[in-house]
Amino acid sequence: MSGLLDMAQSLIRPQGASDTVVPPTGFTARLTVFVSAAMAFLAVFALALTVSANRLADRWASELAESATVRISAPPAEVEIQVAAVLRVLDQTAGVASARILTTEEQRALLAPWFGPDVPLDTLPVPTLVEVIQDGDGFDAEGLRLRLSTEAPGAVLDDHTRWRAPLVQAASRLNFLGWLAVILIGATTGAMITLAANAALAANAQVITVLRLVGAHDRFIAQAFVRRFTLRTILGAGIGTLIGLVAVIALPNGPDDGFLTGLGFSGAGWLLPLTLPILGGIVAFFATRAAADRTLKGLR
Amino acid sequence: MSGLLDMAQSLIRPQGASDTVVPPTGFTARLTVFVSAAMAFLAVFALALTVSANRLADRWASELAESATVRISAPPAEVEIQVAAVLRVLDQTAGVASARILTTEEQRALLAPWFGPDVPLDTLPVPTLVEVIQDGDGFDAEGLRLRLSTEAPGAVLDDHTRWRAPLVQAASRLNFLGWLAVILIGATTGAMITLAANAALAANAQVITVLRLVGAHDRFIAQAFVRRFTLRTILGAGIGTLIGLVAVIALPNGPDDGFLTGLGFSGAGWLLPLTLPILGGIVAFFATRAAADRTLKGLR
Amino acid sequence: MITLQNASYAYGADALLEGMSLELSQGSFHFLTGPSGAGKSTFLKLLYAELRATSGAVHLFGQDARTMDRDEVAGVRQRIGVVHQDCQFLDHLTIAENVALPLMVQGKRAGADLLDLLAWVGLNDRVNAKPPELSGGERQRAALARAVILSPDVILADEPTGNIDWEMSQKVLQLLVELNRMGKTVMVATHDIALIRAAKPQVASRVLRIQNRHLHLAGADL
Amino acid sequence: MITLQNASYAYGADALLEGMSLELSQGSFHFLTGPSGAGKSTFLKLLYAELRATSGAVHLFGQDARTMDRDEVAGVRQRIGVVHQDCQFLDHLTIAENVALPLMVQGKRAGADLLDLLAWVGLNDRVNAKPPELSGGERQRAALARAVILSPDVILADEPTGNIDWEMSQKVLQLLVELNRMGKTVMVATHDIALIRAAKPQVASRVLRIQNRHLHLAGADL
Ligand SMILES: Nc1ncnc2c1ncn2[C@@H]1O[C@H](COP(=O)(O)OP(=O)(O)OP(=O)(O)O)[C@@H](O)[C@H]1O
Ligand SMILES: Nc1ncnc2c1ncn2[C@@H]1O[C@H](COP(=O)(O)OP(=O)(O)OP(=O)(O)O)[C@@H](O)[C@H]1O
Ligand SMILES: [Mg+2]
Ligand SMILES: [Mg+2]
C-alpha cells in the first residue's frame, strides 16, 4: 500500500530537476510506449473474447436449460391419467417454474421436418409433449426422472443435457483460453517493461555515475527513471486500450444471434479494459523501482 | 532476394572480429530474445485457434453439406413411383455422388426422440427418406428443388442450409479473428525488434564512433549488430514457438468432438508455426540493417 | 576535515597504496605528485569515498568512511568539490547545467553567480554548448567550476591543468589559492612540477609524493 | 600527403578557422600550438576527415576530402594514426584488444609486436586491464600505441602528454621522433611549450600556431 502511495506521489509531483538530469531515452522510450500500447491492444481483444465467451456460455446454458420437455407415450386410455400425473409431479418439483402441454400447432411445427407441414396429428400415435420452464438453479433431473418412472411410466424427461453440455463446455473453454491469453499478455508486458527499464538504466550507467559523483541521493536518481517509465507505460497502455476498444466496436458484426458475432463488452464490462493502463502503470512502477535499486547498489 | 542471400551469408559465417568488438548488449539482448519468444508463443496460440476454427468450419460445412435428405410424403399408391422419380432425378444431377433410401432402422433412430424407441413405423404415414451424398462442390440446390417439384411433387429437399450457415459463419469469424491476431502479433513483433535494435544502436553510439575513428567500414560495424539481433530473434522465436507448441499439445483436451476442444494443428499444419522463427529472423535482419544504416549515416 | 590512519588500498591482490597516514586540516593546501600510475587518482578517490580503504581507517568530517551508508556518502560528496581527471559530464545538458549539477541534484536552482563563475574560467561564451562541443581545455575548466559551485569545505583537483596552456594553468592555480585563503582545504594532484614551483610564493603548501606505494612528504628539492 | 588550400571551418555561424593553407609532406614533423579553445583539435579533425572544411580544399593522400564516400574515409583513416585528446576506448575490451582495434576492424590479428609495443609505452603489466582500470597517463600511452599499431603514413597526436609526467613525456616524444625518422609524417598538437623546446635538438620540426582564427608559422622565439 505504501508503495502505491509512493507511486501516486511521484507521479503527481510536477516535473522536477531529476527529470531533466536523466537524458531522454529515445528509442527505449518509444519501445516502452509501443510495447505497452500493443500489449494493451491485444489484451483488450483477449478480454473481449473472454467476456463474450462467458456471456455466450451463460446464454446457451440458460436458454437450453430453461426449456426441458417431458414426452408421454402411452396407450390412448392411459394418456390423460399419465399427463395429469406428470403435471402434478412437475408442480411439486422444486426448480420448476411452470409446465404446460404443447398445443397442436406447436407439435405440428416440431414434426414438420419429418412428415411435412400437414401432419395428421389425430391419426398418429403422437406422444404428448409437456414443456417445462425452470427457474433459479433448475431442478434435479435425476430425481425427477425417478419419480416420473414410478408415477407415469410412459413419460420421458428430456432436459437437453445432451445438447447443452458440449456447447457450454465449448464456451467455457473459449473463456479459459481468453483468460489464459490475458494473463500471458499481462506477464509478458511486465517482463518487457522490466527489461526495457533495465536496458535504459544500463545505457545510462555513465549518467548515474556522474550523478552519484556530484552527491545525488539514490532517491533522486531512481525517481527520474521510475516516473518516466510509469508515465510511459500508462500512456502506451492507454493508447492501446483506446485503439483496442475502437477496434472491438468497429469490428463488423454478423447477424445478431450468431456465435461470436457479439464480440465485445456490455454494461459494466466496458470498465474491465480500462483497468489495463492502471495495472500497467503499477507493474511499471514496481519493476522500474526494483531495477533502479539494483543498478544503484552496484555503484558507490 | 539478394537481401536474403546476404542474410544467410552473414549468419553462417563463423563468429568474427565484429562480434567481439561490439559490447554485449545485456538487457537489450534479453529483451529481444524475450519479446521474440513471448510473441512467438502468442502467435502459436493464435495460429492454433485460427487453424482449428478453419478445420471446424470445414468439418461442419462438409458434414452438414454432404448429407442432404429428400423426404417423400405421398399417398401410399404413389410413393413408389415418386421415390423412383426422385432417385432418377438425383442420378442425373451433377454434384450428387450417391443417393439411397434410408433403412427402417435408420428412420426409427431418427424418429426416436419424438416417439420413443418403439415407433410402429408400419402403422405410421412416415415419409420415405432418401439420403443424398454430395461430391465435389455439391449440387445446385435450387435447380434440384425445381426439378423435384415437377417430377415428384411429394418430395422435399432438405440441404441443411438453415443449420449450416450460422455455424460456418461463426467458425469463419473465429478464423478471421485468429488471422487478425496473427497479423497484429507479427506487426507488433517487427516494430518491437526494430525499436530494440535502434535502442541498442543508440546505446552504442560511442562504440560506433570509436570504430569509425579507427577506420572500420560501415559493413563491419553493421554486421555485428545485424547478426546479433537476427540470431537473437530466431533464438527467441524458436523458444517461444517450442513452448507454444508444447502448451498447445498439453492443453487439457475435452471430449473428442466438442467445439474448440480440438485446439491444435494436424498433419502439415504442424509446419505452420515452424515458419515463425524464420519469419522473425527475416524481419529482424532487415529491421536491424535499416536501423544500423540510419545510425551510421549520422556519423563520419 | 579528512584523516587517514595507516590506510591501504589494493585493486586486486597486490597493494597499490600502503600504510598512509595524513591529516588534512581546515585551510591546508596540498599538492600530490608522483609518476603516472603511482596511485594519485586512487588516493583522491579514497578521500571522496568512491573507494573504501582495504585496511586502515579513513575519516571524512569525523565520520568513518567504512560505516557510511549510501545517503551519507552522497551527503559527504556535497561537502567535497572534485575535479575528476576524466571530466565526467552529462552530454545532454549544457555546460551551464553541468556546472550547476551539484545544485540541481539537491533540488536547488543556480543563481546569478553561476554566470560569474563561468566567466571566471573563461567559458562565458560557451554557456549553452554541450560538453562534446568543448575543447579539452574548456572541459577541464568547466570541471573546475563544477567542483567549486557548492562552495565546498574541501576541494580535490585531479590534474586540473592537464590540457590547458600555461597562462590558463596560472589562472586556475590562482583560483585555488584564493579559495584556500577563504578557508577551504585544497588538494591538487598534478604531474606538472612547474605548477608546484609556481605556487610556492603564493601559498604555504605541502607537497606529497606517492612513490613505491607510500606517501612521502617531498623535500625542499621541489 | 595532406594539403590544405585556403581551408576554413565553422561549427556554427562564426568561423573558427579561416584561410588555412598547409602542405604536410612525407617525413615532416610539425608541432601545433595555440591557446585553449583556439581550434587545435578542430584542425586535426580536418586532417583525418572527421570534419569537412566549410570552404577551401583539403586533400588526403591526393583524394579530395569533400568527395570521399564513407568507405574511402574509412580507408584513409587506416593510413592515419590518431591520438585523440579524449582517448576513445571501448570499455568492454582489454587494453591489448583496444590497442589492436585498428587491426581487428580490418579482420586481421595482432602479432607478437603488439606486446613489444605495449612494453614500449610501459603498459606490459596492464595488458589485460579494461580502460576504466587505467590511470589517466596510462590511457594516454595506450592511445599512442593504438595510433601507431598500423604503422600509418601519418601520425596525428592531440595533446599526447597532457596527463603524463615529464620523464614519460620525453619517452613519448622520443617515440614520435623515431617514427619520424622512419619516414612517417608527424603532427603533435600540444600546449606544452617545454615539450616543443625539448624536441628542438632531436628533430627538424616546424611549429605552427593557431591564433585569431589563422594558422601561423611560429618564430624562433620558441
Ligand atoms: N579500477 C581499477 N582496477 C584495477 N586497477 C586500477 C583501477 N584503477 C586504476 N588502476 C591501476 O592502479 C594504478 C594507479 O592508478 P591511478 O589512476 O591512481 O594513477 P595516477 O597516479 O592517477 O596516474 P596518472 O598520473 O597517470 O593519472 C594504475 O596502474 C592503474 O592501472
Ligand atoms: N562540436 C562542436 N560544436 C561547436 N563548437 C565546438 C565543437 N567542438 C569544438 N567547438 C568549439 O571550438 C573551439 C575550438 O575547439 P578545439 O577543441 O579545436 O580547441 P583546442 O585548440 O583543441 O583547445 P584545447 O587546447 O583546449 O584542447 C572551442 O571554443 C570549442 O568550444
Ligand atoms: Mg590519475
Ligand atoms: Mg584540443
Provide structural commentary.
- Helices cover 70% and strands 8% of the residues of chain A.
- Chain A is α+β, with helices and mostly antiparallel strands and 300 residues long.
- Chain A folds into 2 domains: 2-61 and 165-298, no CATH class; 74-153, no CATH class.
- Chain A has a 4-stranded antiparallel sheet.
- In chain A, helix 3 (26-66) runs antiparallel to helix 10, helix 7 runs antiparallel to helix 9 (218-250) and helix 7 (161-203) runs parallel beside helix 10.
- With 222 residues, chain C is α/β, with parallel strands linked by helices.
- A 6-stranded mixed sheet of chain C has the order 6-7-8-3-9-10, sandwiched between helices.
- Chain C is globular and about 45 Å long.
- The mean pLDDT of chain C is 89.
- Chains in contact: A-B, A-C, B-D, C-D.
- The complex binds adenosine-5'-triphosphate (ATP) (2 copies) and magnesium ion (2 copies).
- One magnesium ion binds at residues 40-41, 85, 158 of chain C.
- One adenosine-5'-triphosphate sits between chains D (11, 16, 34, 36-42, 85, 191) and C (126, 129, 133-138, 163).
Largest sheet of chain A: 4 strands, antiparallel
Mean pLDDT of chain A: 77
Number of helices of chain A: 10
Strand content of chain C: 15-25%
Give the total of beta strands of chain A: 4
Portion of residues in beta strands of chain A equals 5-15%
Structural class of chain C: alpha/beta
Distance between the termini of chain C: 26 Å
Shape annotation of chain A? rod-shaped
Q: Could you give the order of the helices and strands of chain C?
A: EEEHEEHEHHHHEHEHEE
Counting structural domains of chain A, the number is 2
The stretches of 5 or more residues of chain C where confidence is low (pLDDT under 50) are none
Q: Provide the spatial order of strands within the biggest beta sheet of chain C.
A: 6-7-8-3-9-10
Into which percent range does the helicity of residues of chain A fall? 55-70%
In sequence order, what are the helices and strands of chain A, one letter per element?
HHHEHEHEHEHHHH
- Uncertain parts of chain A: 254-261
* Helix residue percentage of chain C: 25-40%
Q: How large, in whole angstroms, is the Cα Rg of chain C?
A: 17 Å
- Taking all Cα atoms into account, the compactness measure Rg of chain A is 31 Å
Largest interface: A-B, 56 and 55 residues
